[in-house]
Amino acid sequence: MFRCEAYAAPSADAPLAPFSFERRDPTPEDVQIDILYCGVCHSDLHMARNEWGFSTYPLVPGHEIIGRVAKVGSAVTKFKAGDLVGVGCMVDSCRVCSACRDGVEQFCEQGMTQTYASPDKHTGGFTYGGYSKAITVYEGFVLKVSEALDPAAAAPLLCAGITTWSPLRHWKVGPGQKVGIVGLGGLGHMGVKFAAALGAQVVLFTTSPSKIEDGKRLGAHEVVVSKNADEMAAHAGSFDFILDCVSAEHDLNAYLNLLKRDGTMCLVGAPENPTPVASFSLILGRRSLAGSLIGGIAETQEMLDFCAEHNITCDVEVIDIKDINTAFERMLKSDVKYRFSIDMASL
Ligand code: NAP
Ligand code: ZN
Ligand code: ZN
To answer: pTM here?
Structure first.
């Protein structure tokens, strides 16, 4: 075991503060990683404040981790000391169920081990995430990251990247399709970049008129301010696919009505409270409402390789760990362009 410095939420209603705990030394199949950067996902905020009802405390958030391998266990074959690597939302799963065999470990029938606040198979406690100096992870859940990518800007690919990439690939978004991305935050800005890179016609929906120019710069062909009913009505019945990346309650029916016949709207945003769906929003036009959870390990590697090939990273504001509570407040106000990335040298 070794001592690891971190920041933790001591309870649902207290700010994050310095904390330290014991990490395990690598087992033969583990990789020990010195963390360089960790992205700040809105899920970290939902979890720190127990908005989904299953948080454990002290809670060390962080599942958009980039670091360098410090050492590897004797049976590790894929990594060596010095490699640039990533860790996302999962650090393990049962490895044998049909979901794990199919490469969708996020749907493991035994429950994946999440990077933080999941029962820890090794310590008997709960897992601690990436707002920390180091992490020890089974090599099967460690990703290779190209040296060509800026590590601070690549960190959020590990959650915001894969969470938008996976549904865009699953619903086969590509040329000839009209695709909507709702909400220009951490997830949404990657949704815009990926949908454009995959060749779709991309429309961004935002509540923030100040983000119109950025939306276009990031790859949207058109930006709609969703509070403007006329602008929304102009797109009625026209979308093949809509990806909803919004973190707070909003009217889903307004977007379902923009789908074509047989179109799909996929939720990745996970607000605290449920939202009503009118049957007629789906019945008229045989539309589908779906959801998607992060992505599997092989698909995450595919996304990282695509990013290296196409020079895609996240737009980040690098912050010191001491500023994390201010960053949470700014994220709540949709005031982040477009992801905070913590420089772990500041810890
Ligand atoms: P974020 O950076 O805070 O972005 C959320 C965006 O939603 C904001 O930038 C804003 O965009 C829009 N928004 C916020 N409040 C709104 C409101 N009241 N009405 C309408 N729009 C609003 O958050 P994120 O990190 O991208 O995460 C987004 C959501 O996805 C969170 O709920 C998070 O927990 C969830 N998530 C899910 C998965 C998954 O696997 N399914 C993975 C990661 C995260 P505009 O300013 O453009 O309107
Ligand atoms: Zn996340
Ligand atoms: Zn499994």
So the answer is: 0.98
